[in-house]
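[step 3/7] fold_predict: job queued, chain A
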Amino acid sequence: METKANIMDTARWVAVYRALETVRPDALFRDPFAEKLAGERGREIAKVMTPDLARSSWPGIMRTKLIDDLVEKSMAEGCDRVINLAAGLDARPYRLALPSTLTWYEADLPAMVEEKERALARETPRCNLIREQVDLTDERARSAFLDRASDGASRTLIISEGLLPYLEDHQAQSLARDCAARPSARWWVVDLLSPGTLKLMRRRGRGTLDATAELKFAPENGVEYFEPFGWKPSDVSSLLREAVRTKRVSLFMRLCALAPEPPANRPGLRPWSAVIRYARA
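[step 4/7] structure written:
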C-alpha cells in the first residue's frame, strides 16, 4: 500500500467485510452493492489492515447486522425519517425492506458522497433518499443539515455508525446535544468502544492509518456517557456476544467469551464494543 489508509479507505475496508458476509450461504444479511463499493482499493486496505479476513471480519459484520435490526425495530415503532450521519458507503436504503413513503437522509464529506453516487448511479433506492455533502465537524453546517433533514418528521431515527470513535470528546458531546435538539428525534444509534479496545485498535493500526483515521473516543462510563445530553440507552448489544451467538468467531474467541463481559457503564481496559440505540430521555 503506497499511502496510509484514511477515512475513505476505512469505509471501503468495512465494505469488504459486508461483501464477504454476503456470499456466505448462511449470511446474516445480503449487501449486493458491497463488492462494487469496496473496489480494488478496499481489498488492498483490508489485506494490509487485517490479513486474516475470515477471522477478523466479525466486528464489522456484527455492527452491520445489529444496526440493520435496529432500523427494522424503529420502523416497527413508527419511524418516519432516518438521518444517517457519516453514511460512508452504507447501502441500507437500497437493500433493506423499507417503506416507499420513508425519507432517508445521508450526510458525508464531498469526496465520499461523490464516490458513492458514481458507484450507485444506476441503482434505485427503496425509499426517498436524499444525500448531502456536509462536514459534520462544522457545527453550523451540521446544525443546518439536521434542520433540513428533520423538517416535517415526527419520529426520527439518527444513525452515526462508525463516527464517534473518530471524534474528540467535545465533538461527541456537541453532536449529542445537536441531535437531541431536534424535536422529532426519538432514537440515536451509535457504536462504542471501551478504552481497552481503543488502545488495542490504535496499536494494530499504528503506521497504517493517517491522522484522519485515528481513533480517539472511548468513554470510561460507556453507555452512560450521553445521558446528560438527553439520551438514555434502550438497546445495548455486545458485538462479541452476538458474534458468538451467530457463530462468526473462532473457537478461541468463543472460549474468551465465556468470561463475564465488563459492565456497559464501566467497560474499562477490557475488550468491549457494542451497538447502542439511545432513546430520547
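[step 5/7] annotate
The first helix runs from residue 7 to 22.
Residues 57-280 form a domain with the Rossmann fold fold (CATH 3.40.50.150).
exit 0
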